[in-house]
């Protein structure tokens, strides 16, 4: 009998509220080694809130654990030090700074370890050669797709142990979305677990091992994207 894969990230009864608004209700999800897991759901379903709750940034009950140990609350630096790194919705890059400076910021904890910095930079530029051609360009002058690549590249510069992405497809053309998703699949295949929050279900389902569906703050389904009937189930949740 083969052992079940190790759970890298796991939430148990994770609940989050903003004042009186309960935006997330008792969510149980997990990401195993080698997996890319999607969280899908319509506008306002609570997808970003789930990520904020995992990072300890929302008012929560329940737990979010990484390698079996609860993640700290209200201490984003401690969470990212453990290798749990978010690529936020809207990318969060610094527009007036150059591509190179944005990438340096991602590796700020390295201080003077130049060899390790170069190793990480080489990896990022191999994944996104277009960033290498634009190292001295201001980030804000790049296209939306290039900015999304930079946001992912900057996260990779911190050498994450798991990557959390909040709607990386936002505002991008289908061809660019496909390119970004292809890169995420490559990272997953290199051994980086990924939790991908997406409103655009078809793009995420193409590469996910498992997809949770979030509606009105509740996980209403856990789908196997290889199972064709799961795609019909998904439509039901989006267009109910
Ligand atoms: P989208 O796809 O539009 O980004 P989402 O699925 O990520 O949506 P959330 O942003 O997590 O959804 O929002 C979930 C619910 O919580 C929504 O009803 C939203 O209005 C509410 N909400 C989010 N942030 C706050 C806040 N800071 N204060 C009060 N309510 C909030």
What would you say this structure looks like, in words?
By secondary structure, the protein is α/β, with parallel strands linked by helices. It folds into 2 domains: 6-83 and 161-240, Rossmann fold, CATH 3.40.50; 91-159, no CATH class. Helix content is 35%, strand content 27%. It has 9 helices and 10 strands. It has helices spanning 47-54, 76-81, 99-106, 114-127, 129-132, 144-156, 174-189, 201-205, 229-238, and strands spanning 7-18, 21-32, 36-40, 59-66, 69-70, 84-87, 162-166, 194-198, 210-215, 218-223. Strands 6-7-8-3-9-10 form a 6-stranded mixed sheet, with helices on both faces. It has a 4-stranded antiparallel sheet with strand order 2-1-4-5, with helices on one face. A hairpin with a 2-residue loop joins strand 4 (59-66) and strand 5. Helix 3 (99-106) runs parallel beside helix 6 (144-156). The longest helix has 16 residues, at 174-189. It starts with 6 loop residues before the first strand and ends with a helix. Adenosine-5'-triphosphate is lined by residues 18, 21, 23, 41, 43-49, 199.
Alpha-carbon distance between the two ends: 41 Å
Radius of gyration: 18 Å
Stretches where pLDDT falls below 50 for ≥5 residues?
A: none
Number of helices: 9
Q: What structural category characterises the helix and strand content?
A: alpha/beta
Quote the average pLDDT: 92
Q: Which strand order does the major sheet show?
A: 6-7-8-3-9-10
CATH homologous superfamily grouping of the largest domain: P-loop containing nucleotide triphosphate hydrolases
What is the H-and-E element order?
EEEHEEHEHHHHEHEHEEH
CATH class of the largest domain: Alpha Beta
- Specify the oligomeric state: single chain
**Helix percent band:** 25-40%
């Amino acid at each position: 009998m083969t052992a079940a894969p190790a759970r890298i990230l796991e939430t148990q009864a994770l609940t989050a509220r903003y004042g009186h608004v309960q935006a997330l209700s008792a969510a149980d999800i997990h990401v195993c080694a080698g997996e890319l897991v999607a969280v899908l759901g319509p506008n306002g379903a609570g997808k970003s809130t789930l990520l904020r709750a995992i990072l300890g940034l929302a008012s929560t009950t329940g737990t979010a654990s990484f390698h079996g140990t609860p993640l700290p609350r209200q201490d984003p630096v401690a969470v990212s030090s453990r290798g749990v790194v978010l690529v936020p919705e809207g990318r969060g890059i610094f527009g007036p700074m150059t591509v190179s400076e944005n990438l340096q910021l991602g590796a700020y904890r390295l201080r003077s370890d130049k060899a390790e910095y170069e190793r990480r930079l080489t990896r990022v530029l191999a994944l996104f050669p277009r960033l290498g051609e634009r190292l001295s360009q201001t980030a804000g002058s790049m296209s939306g797709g290039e900015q999304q690549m930079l946001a992912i590249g900057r996260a990779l510069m911190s050498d994450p142990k798991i990557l959390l992405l909040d709607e990386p497809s936002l505002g991008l053309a289908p061809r660019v979305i496909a390119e970004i998703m292809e890169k995420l699949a490559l990272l997953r295949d290199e051994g980086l677990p990924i939790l991908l929050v997406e409103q655009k279900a078809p793009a995420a389902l193409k590469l996910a091992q498992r997809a949770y569906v979030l509606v009105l703050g509740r996980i209403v389904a856990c789908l196997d994207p290889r199972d064709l009937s799961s795609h019909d189930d998904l439509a039901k949740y989006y267009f109910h």
